[in-house]
Amino acid sequence: MAAKANIDLLPEFTPPLPTKEDLDYVDLVNLDLSKFDDPAGREELKNTLYKAATGYGFLTLSNHGISDDTYLRQMRISNAMMTLSPEKKAPYEVTPEEDARGLYVGYKPAGPLGHKGGFPKQLDHYNILVHDPKSRPHPEIMRPFLEETYEVMHHIRTKILMKLLRLTANILEVPEGVLLSTHNPGGSKTEYIRYMMCEPRSQEESDRYRDIFLSGHTDWGSWTFLFRSQCRFRWVRHQPHSLIVNFGEAMERLTGGLFKATIHRVVQPPVDQRHIRRIGVIYSSALPMRGHWFQ
Ligand SMILES: [Fe+2]
Question: Which ranges carry the Isopenicillin N synthase-like Fe(2+) 2OG dioxygenase domain (predicted)?
Fold first, then answer.
């Protein structure tokens, strides 16, 4: 592993404490990935993944190999990237041509553009693609931290995603290679890490848009790995040291509908966090191309 850049180059950032409110939390099941290499443990993980995929829509991962230090560094990088001034972000925004080609790269600001149901999207994000990531320039503040960010993406692909794919193959009773080949390195042009920010809204705005920051949808990739819980249709509890995972449309298609894509949305935070700017990091895994696999 390469030496890491000095994190103090970036503004300080401490993730907010979890809410103290008693919310309607969704039940989550946990996959302890340290059990993966033990045959009995693998069987247990297989059953748990099946339960999550067919009943819950969300699961948590523990012993995933992303240290608290790495988590905090990624959150700090996300905060630094997302709080740059609009002028500094502008040269790195996704272009209309890239957008039309389905390339999910660069900044995509919040704005009046409707998201699915027509609600404005109160969420800014910045994407870094796994494939050929050096082909597109990144803001200066990001450059010293690119290499470690690629390492995080590589870790998720090789140490987490591959395990989920092998468990899925075990559930479907097909050779593991069949599932692994769907996520061959370099195949996907749309697999990325995403830094995100939700700015607090005024009460008036929130009333107008029924507290919805990002309207209900399913992700179209295979899985989305969240470094931090977000607000969904039911609340997902903050899970210290864990990644939260939801299922995307690609897994629903790939499993013939056995796995269900998770419908979720982003809404107004609980009262004790309403004034806080929310910073997040997700990793979205994907199959090579929508058209190639799913005609
Ligand atoms: Fe989503």
Answer: 211-272
- Give the Å distance between the CA of 250 and the centre of ligand 1: 13
With a CB cutoff of 8 Å and minimum separation 6, the contacts of 154 are: none
Condensed to tens digits (0 to 9), the pLDDT of residues 213-227 reads: 777 788 889 999 998
Alpha-carbon 272 to chain mean position: 24
**C-alpha of residue 78 to centroid of ligand 1, in Å:** 17
DSSP 185: T
Q: How far is the CA of 233 from the centre of ligand 1 (A)?
A: 12
Give alpha helix (H) positions in the chain.
39-51, 68-82, 86-89, 96-100, 146-155, 162-172, 176-180, 203-208, 249-254, 290-293
- List the shell of residues around ion ligand 1, using CB closer than 5 Å: 219
Q: Does the pLDDT at position 232 exceed 50?
A: no
Q: Distance (Å, rounded) from C-alpha 95 to C-alpha 98?
A: 5
Order of strands, sheet of 278-285, starting from the edge strand that comes earlier in the sequence: 29-32, 58-62, 243-247, 223-226, 278-285, 192-198, 124-129, 106-108
CATH superfamily of 23-288: B-lactam Antibiotic, Isopenicillin N Synthase; Chain (2.60.120.330)
Q: At 246, is the secondary structure helix, strand, or coil?
A: strand
DSSP 209: T
Global pTM value:
0.88
pLDDT at residue 167 tops 80: yes
Q: 224 CA distance to ligand 1 centroid (A)? A: 8
C-alpha 9 – ligand 1 centre gap (Å): 31
